[in-house]
Design brief:
Its EC number is 3.1.22.1. GO terms for molecular function: deoxyribonuclease II activity. Keywords: Hydrolase, Signal. InterPro entries: DNase_II (IPR004947). This protein is an alpha+beta fold. It has one domain. It contains six helices and 21 strands. The strands form four sheets. Strands 13, 14, 15, 16, 17, 18, 19, 20 and 21 form a nine-stranded mixed β-sheet that branches. It has an eight-stranded antiparallel β-sheet with strand order 7-6-3-11-10-9-8-12, sandwiched between helices. The longest helix is centred in the first third of the chain and has 23 residues, at 2-24.
Length: 353
C-alpha cells in the first residue's frame, strides 16, 4: 500500500513538473495566459456603420474555439492574449537576458515618426534555443519598448487591426530570420546574444540597421508551428515592384483571393482580373451579429480564397496600394479550416472584376 501510494505521488509530482516546465516555455499565450500553438486577434475599428465604439474591443480566435468570440478584455488593459504573450519579454527583464533573442519592429515605431526606407511591416519575436513566438500585426507604434512594459498606443484605437501569433521551435526562427532580410523591417529594439549570432547572421545585421545580401527579389518559406500546423510565409523586397497579392500569392496559391487592406482614396489598387487568378477588394465587413464596418476604417491586412474549397487565409503587412508595390513586406498564409471559416464569413461586400 505504501509503495502504491509512493508511486502515485511520484506520478503526480512528475506531471506537475512537466506542466510547469511546458508552461515556462516561451510561446503565444491565450486569453487566460496559457501556452497556445497560435492565436488570431481582430481589433474592432472605433467607427462602425451606425455606431461608435471604444476602439479597444477585439475578437479572439485559437484552435480551442469553434470561431470568433468577443474578448472580455480590451487591448489597452493588463489582461488578454497580447499582454500575456508580450509580458514574457517585459516581465522579469527577459529583454536583458543572454539566453533569448528578441526583436521589435515597426515602420512607425513607438515615440517616433513614420520612417521611410524600411519595409512596411510590424511585429515582435522572442525565442530561446528551444522555442518562441512570432507575432505579426498591423498596429503602428506598437509594441512598446521593453523597459516601459505593455502599452497599447492611443493611435491604434481608430482603425481595425489584426494580429497573428504562432509558436515555433527554434530551428524555424532560422528560416524566419531569412524572411526578415527580404522585408527589411525597422528594428527599433532587439538583441541577439553572442551564443546565437552564428545561427542568425541576417538578424544580427538587421539589428544594426543594415541590409543583408539577397539572392532574389522575393522568397517563399514553409513554416511549421510547435504542434505541426503548416504556415507559408511570402515575403518580397522593394526590388519586387508589384502587388504581392495579384502578382505573386494568388498565382502560387492557385486561388482567387478576396483582399481586405487599408486603401486610402486615390492610392488604392483596383480589383485585378488580368492574370489567371484574380484578386478582388473587400469593401465591407460583417462581424458575427449585426456589426458592420467599411474597409476604409480597417487598417488590417488579410485575404481569403473566394472558393470555399481552397480554404486559404493570409495575414500580414502590405496594403493593396500603389506605393507599397515598391515596399518590402509579406504575408503568412494558412490552410486551417477554422481560421478560413472565421474570416470568410466576415466578407459582406467585395468589388468583382
Amino acid at each position: 500500500m505504501v509503495a502504491e501510494c509512493f508511486s502515485f505521488c511520484l506520478q503526480i509530482i512528475l506531471l506537475f513538473n512537466y506542466y510547469t516546465v511546458c508552461s515556462a516555455n516561451i510561446s503565444c499565450r491565450n486569453e487566460a495566459g496559457e501556452p497556445v500553438d497560435w492565436f488570431v486577434i481582430y481589433k474592432m475599428p472605433r467607427y462602425k456603420i451606425g455606431e461608435v465604439g471604444s476602439g479597444v474591443d477585439y475578437m479572439y480566435l485559437d484552435s480551442s474555439a469553434e470561431g470568433w468570440h468577443m474578448s472580455k478584455y480590451m487591448v489597452n488593459t493588463s489582461q488578454g492574449a497580447l499582454v500575456s504573450t508580450l509580458n514574457q519579454l517585459y516581465m522579469g527583464k527577459a529583454y536583458e537576458s543572454n539566453s533569448s533573442v528578441y526583436a521589435l519592429y515597426n515602420d512607425a515605431p513607438p515615440l517616433t515618426d513614420y520612417i521611410r526606407g524600411y519595409g512596411h511591416t510590424k511585429g515582435a519575436m522572442l525565442f530561446d534555443n528551444s522555442q518562441g513566438f512570432w507575432l505579426s500585426h498591423s498596429v503602428p507604434h506598437f509594441p512598446s519598448f521593453p523597459e516601459k512594459g505593455y502599452v497599447y498606443p492611443s493611435s491604434g484605437k481608430v482603425y481595425g487591426q489584426t494580429a497573428l501569433c504562432v509558436t515555433y521551435q527554434y530551428k524555424q526562427f532560422l528560416q524566419i530570420a531569412q524572411q526578415m532580410a527580404y522585408i527589411f523591417p525597422r528594428f527599433y529594439n532587439c538583441s541577439v546574444p553572442a551564443t546565437f549570432m552564428a545561427d542568425l547572421p541576417q538578424l544580427v545585421q538587421l539589428c544594426k540597421g543594415s541590409k543583408p545580401p539577397l539572392s532574389s527579389d522575393k522568397r517563399e518559406e514553409q513554416l511549421f508551428s510547435i504542434r505541426g500546423e503548416k504556415f507559408v510565409s511570402f515575403v518580397k523586397s522593394e526590388q519586387f515592384v508589384d502587388d504581392i497579392y495579384t502578382g505573386w500569392m494568388a498565382q502560387v496559391l492557385d486561388a482567387d483571393l478576396l483582399a481586405e487592406t487599408w486603401q486610402r482614396q486615390g492610392h488604392e489598387l483596383p480589383s485585378n482580373c488580368s492574370l489567371p487568378k484574380h484578386v478582388m477588394n473587400i469593401k465591407r465587413i460583417q462581424l458575427p451579429g449585426s456589426v458592420r464596418f467599411q474597409s476604409y476604417y480597417d487598417h488590417s491586412k488579410w485575404c481569403v480564397s473566394l472558393a470555399y474549397e481552397d480554404q486559404v487565409t493570409c495575414l500580414g503587412d502590405l496594403n493593396r496600394e500603389k506605393a507599397q508595390m515598391w515596399r518590402g513586406g509579406g504575408m503568412v498564409c494558412t490552410f486551417n479550416p477554422l481560421i478560413y471559416k472565421a474570416f470568410r464569413k466576415m466578407v459582406d461586400w467585395y468589388i468583382g472584376c
